[in-house]
Amino acid sequence: MSRFFVLAIALSSLSSLLASPLATKRQSITTLSTTQISAFKPFTFFASAAYCDPSTTINWSCGRYVGFDPSLNTVIAAHQGTNTSSIVAELTDLDIFMKNLDSTLFPGIDPSVGVHSGFADSQARSAPDILSAVQQTLSAHPGASVTMTGHSLGAALALLDAVYLPLHLPTGTSFKTVTYGMPRVGNLAFANYVDAQITSLSGGTGLTHINNKEDPVPILPGMFLGFHHPSGEVHIQDSDAWDACPGQDNSSDLCIVGDVPNVFESDEADHDGPYDGVEMGC
Ligand SMILES: *[C@@H]1O[C@H](CO)[C@@H](O)[C@H](O)[C@H]1NC(C)=O
Ligand SMILES: *[C@@H]1O[C@H](CO)[C@@H](O)[C@H](O)[C@H]1NC(C)=O
Ligand SMILES: *[C@@H]1O[C@H](CO)[C@@H](O)[C@H](O)[C@H]1NC(C)=O
């Protein structure tokens, strides 16, 4: 009898939850508040700093660094991007192909997961150095979280680090990934893996990929080549409003896939920003 009572309560609260505006609102496009936008600012500076060889960052070399932010109590692993014309040229090259992730670097990843071969090779070269720098920084700051960031090509490498690092760091470490002007990195199996393992962290805020206005890079490589974005898009409108777009490659006009149907309707000048006033690069 008491068991039935508990079940009845559970069911009635479930149905009221399903009927509540909150449940339906979760799937709609929402505009970020100024407070929410400002919360991204430190990561925007960290992504931009990857272009600068800054003295404040630890062990910057070859376009990447690992650093520590005491106020956020987080280890930062950041990658530099390339210039806009070279990334657009590379990503519109029809010679693009996908490969599996290296099984030593990415133990246990399903073989259906495919990623851009150039991104995979580039991430594989820096991966051991990044891992050891992150491990050393974490041992100097026990309990700190780990944040991956980058812009452009650097965003793609940061997303691969976001898949790679948790496979080698102690369970219980918390991770966050924030990227800017990120191209598509892999296939649908990759996007689904990222959604399940990364985007879903911290109540669905584990990954945010921010793209600016009519930037061509986030719509490349094309979906017709089998590439898909994971969830977690935030799109900056021409009005400078920041909108969170639910799902993968949302085709709404408020999101990049709907706003920029092809590269001919894009504007390369939007790739470097500004992202809330911050231009990428040094
Ligand atoms: C972009 O990078 C490529 C390759 O590194 C270089 O050849 C080109 O001059 C650069 N373009 C600009 C505008 O900096
Ligand atoms: C940075 O590099 C120095 C010298 O190579 C090394 O001793 C130090 O442990 C490195 N720090 C991190 C956090 O990787
Ligand atoms: C795109 O956003 C709309 C809300 O405007 C939502 O209903 C739809 O499910 C989203 N599309 C995808 C593919 O998730």
TrEMBL record:
Domain Fungal lipase-type: 79-223
Keyword annotations of the record: Disulfide bond, Signal
Biological processes per GO annotation: lipid metabolic process
InterPro entries, per database record: AB_hydrolase_fold, Fungal_lipase-type, Sec_MonoDiacylglyc_Lipase
Domain of life: Eukaryota
Cleavable signal peptide: 1-19
Catalytic activity from the UniProt record: a monoacylglycerol + H2O = glycerol + a fatty acid + H(+); a diacylglycerol + H2O = a monoacylglycerol + a fatty acid + H(+)
Family: Belongs to the AB hydrolase superfamily. Lipase family. Class 3 subfamily.
Protein name according to UniProt: Fungal lipase-type domain-containing protein
